[in-house]
Amino acid sequence: MIYGRTIRFLVNILATIAGFSTLAVQAADLAVTLAWSPSPSSDTAGYRLYYGGRSGDYTNSLDVGNTTIAKVPGLAVGATYFFAVTALDVIGLESTFSDEIRYMVPAGARIAAQALALGQMLLTGQGPVGYVYDIQASADFQSWSRIASVTMDSDGTFQATIPNIATTARRWYRLRQTSP
Hints:
This protein is mainly β. The chain has strands at about 30-35, 45-50, 60-65, 70-75, 80-90, 100-105, 110-115, 120-125, 130-140, 145-150, 155-160, 170-180.
């Protein structure tokens, strides 16, 4: 019987998190995949994954069956979640919670462009505070050139004026994260 036993929760965050956004698109809901060590108990019939926005306050749960890996969809960009797992035996008795892990869903960045007088472009954007991004430009979506670097300020915004854009008929911009 596994009731009252604690499962050691070893978590790996696997590759289901979308990359940081480019152009004027912000990431929608994201998912994270969690994995843990199996219960040492021989009568483990399954697992239940709990999560929520505050430590110890799990407002959501997933019955994941007898597997030690689960994908949690619908996470909000920039939000912090707390996860714990329990084991279930064949009659449905549940173990105590595992150790808890904390996970912050990476926030994407977005960029907007506004033409100014004299062949200049004003680029503004939002992203996680303190993150550094290269601003890249392209005329064909194939070749991208770094034209500036920006750091998100204490409000999570940036503003940059790009000179000499009159030499290109069309130009697209994107952000590439260089450091958190």
